[in-house]
Automatic annotation (TrEMBL):
Pathway: Cofactor biosynthesis; adenosylcobalamin biosynthesis. It comes from Cognatishimia activa. One of its GO terms (biological process) is cobalamin biosynthetic process. It is an enzyme of class 1 (oxidoreductase). The lineage of its organism: Bacteria, Pseudomonadati, Pseudomonadota, Alphaproteobacteria, Rhodobacterales. It comes from the Bacteria. InterPro entries: Precorrin-6x_reduct (IPR003723). The keyword Oxidoreductase applies. This is Cobalt-precorrin-6A reductase. NCBIfam families: precor6x_red, PRK08057.1-2. Keywords: Cobalamin biosynthesis, Oxidoreductase.
Amino acid sequence: MSTHLLILGGTTEASALARAVAEAGIPATFSYAGRVDKPKTQPIPQRVGGFGGVAGLVAYLREHNITHVVDATHPFAAQMSWNAFHACAEAGVELMALTRPAWRAAAGDQWTHVPDISGAVAALEGAPKRIMLALGRMHVEDFAAQPQHHYVLRLVDAPSVAPSLPSHSVVVARGPFDVAGDIALFKEHAVDIVVCKNAGGIGAEAKIHAARALGLPVVMIDRPALPARREGATVEAVLEWLAQS
């Protein structure tokens, strides 16, 4: 049976994999979750939107004769990762995760580790500060529980409805970002604290270096629990797996 790959994407690594399989002539489809208005065009056929849970994904895999799935979703897209794990097992489809190594604190970092969004909100109790919420548009509303702060939101798309945060600024920009740019952004908005998820990888790492350079504390949301599955950290590892399986 010839290979037909489904890439569950949205990350920088997923796009790199799409380019590689296109160059290699491997039949593949790229799937976006649909959380940005204008997703990046890929060099392979692409689809946008959910599958309808495990059952819907199983049906898709069978209908489209998918032989391999690469989960290259964001490390915090836990529900999709679990759905892929169970659907591939049910459909008898090979699964591999293209996983970004997590960031690790270095000398000069001031990280407060929290397990989830609720923990991040709780960590912001206290006097008014200027908070950089580097979280995308999801979960922004949760921080209305700490209304004393001014929040700086960096979003891929301008929000159609203003966030219910009493005091906030919106910066519309699409990564990857560089350290000099993030240092300038933090200075421009007089940021006191950075809140982010431990996404890992290099595409969103600039804010970590910028916070370190400026001596800013970071509220770091740790990664959720994900299923035990075959994992690779590079596009080359995925291509090798495809060649051997």
